[in-house]
Each structure stands twice: as structure tokens, then as C-alpha cells.
Specification:
The chain is α+β, with helices and mostly antiparallel strands and 314 residues long. It has three domains: 99 residues, Aromatic compound dioxygenase (Protocatechuate 3,4-Dioxygenase, subunit A); 99 residues, Serine Threonine Protein Phosphatase 5, Tetratricopeptide repeat (Alpha Horseshoe), CATH 1.25.40; 80 residues, Tetratricopeptide repeat domain (Serine Threonine Protein Phosphatase 5, Tetratricopeptide repeat). It is built from 13 helices and eight strands. The strands form two sheets. Strands 4-1-7-8 form a four-stranded mixed sheet. It is elongated.
Length: 314
Amino acid sequence: MRRLTRLMSLLALLAAATALPLAAGQQGRVLGHVIDPAGKPIEGVKVTITTSAITTFKAELVTNKDGKFERVFLDAVPKYHYRFEKAGYATYEDDFKVQAGDMSAVYEVKLPPAGAAPVAAVVAAPQADPFVAAYNEAVEKYQAGDLEGAMAKVAEATKAGPDKANGFDLGAKIAYKKKDWDKTIEYGEASLKLDADNAQVVGLLADAYKAKGDKAKAREYEQKYMAANADDPNVMLNQAIELYNKGNFKGAEPLLKKVIEAQPTNAKAHYLLGMADASLGKTPEMKTHLNEYLKLEPQGKDASAAKEMLDAFK
């Protein structure tokens, strides 16, 4: 189980290091409306959207009969530049930023006749969802290394969205990074109540309980992790090792075959399968896997045992 615990710890650290804003929170949508100074909608206005943050990005839209256009941004973090143009009207350019998570930002632009003085655009953005705002601030602070500030924002987010697993999930990851095992457990278990299939949080909880010395709970979450990741070659290898060490070579054999199918160069799996096959009287299979092990790790710690076994069956 030591190898499994190390694997879970690595996955937990990876999960904590790559926390990102909510998928919906990262996105944004602008609802554009182009009118003349009298408030009449202008159809057929070409709207070109670019951003210096993504030099390859360029979107070209045309307003409909109601003078409206719409654009969803998968990444609403950068500021976007808009250019409005139509024959007979003055061209208007401006920057407009949709707040991450805002899917209904209204951007109204008044185009005067050509030659007339430009008219300022009107922006009417509704108030952002408090959960999304607090969550994204927590992510920003976390990514900047401000763990205390991030935890404070997580507290706001979970209060504003007690039914949102994402907030508790992020809290568990930040607490894990801080080695605050009590908070890791508090947020982790709250997250699992809302999203029972979050295997990363299960890994965090297993580590947290182990750090607190609660072997029973650590084992409980280790088992849950293994069940949730039954097809993971590393999990299957650990299960095979447990069976192998108990002398259950018949039970270990199919798991080791699956590991090798997924990871053909897994030397450890080849060695164990070769030794299991020797115990099961499958000499040709034993020779195949032990020879493969020696090719992969000729100086491996089990190389001597593999050579002795092969010599015994010459």
C-alpha cells in the first residue's frame, strides 16, 4: 500500500497545483446592441473582436435586424477590442471586458452618421454571481501563492454557494497545500457529499487522515480511491502486489496482464507476472515475462532472482 499512498499523494499535489476557475466562471458572454443616436437598431454592422492577449484570435460578427449580436468567450479573462463599422456611419472602436462568469453582460453602442461626433458606448453589466466572484478570487489568490487570502475567499464562496461542490473541493485542495488536515477533512467531506465521484478529493482525505494518525479512516478512503480508479494501471498493480504477497498468484495474474496491456514497459509488472506464472506452472509465459523484465531493467533489484528462475528452467 506504500506505493499506492505515494501515488495518491502525487495526484493530490497535482490536483492542488492545477486548480483553475470554474469552467463557467472562466467563460463570459457579451450581448451586444448597436443603435443610432435616436435609439433605432442598426442592422448589418460589422463587429470585429480581437485581443492583444491572444494574437491569433479574431471574431467577425454582423448585427441582426434588431441591431444585436452575441459572443461567448471560452476565456473571458483578457480584455477584448471591438471595432464597429458600416457604410454611412462613423466607425467606432473601444475595449470592453466581460467579467469571468458573467454570461449576460450588455454592451450597447451608439453609431452616429458618418462625419458626426462619436457617441459613448453604454455598458450595462448585471451584478456577478457572488459565488462565482468569490470562487474566482480564491483561485487567483491561490495561484498567486496567497493561501490565507484564498481560504478566506473560499469561506465566502461556500457560504454563497453551499450547494456547489467546486467551492468545497477548492477549499480542500488549498487546505491540503497548507497541511491543514482538519480543514482538508472538513472541506473534502463536504465536497464528497455533493459530488461523491470526486476521486481527487478522496485521495486528499486519505492523506489527511493518515497525517492525523487515523489509520481506519485513511484505509477507508484508500479503498474508496482504489474502487474509483479500478482501471488505473497503478491501482491495479498495487492490488496485484497485495494478492501476490498473500500467495494468491491466480488472482494477481489477470491484474498484472491488464497492467502490461496498458503499460507494456512496466518492468515490475513483467517480473511479478513471470514469477506468478512460475508458481502456476506456466513455464513459457514465465520465460517471456522474466526475459522482458531483464530487457527493461537488466540491472534491476530483481534481476538476480529473474536470472536464477530462468536458469532453473533451461
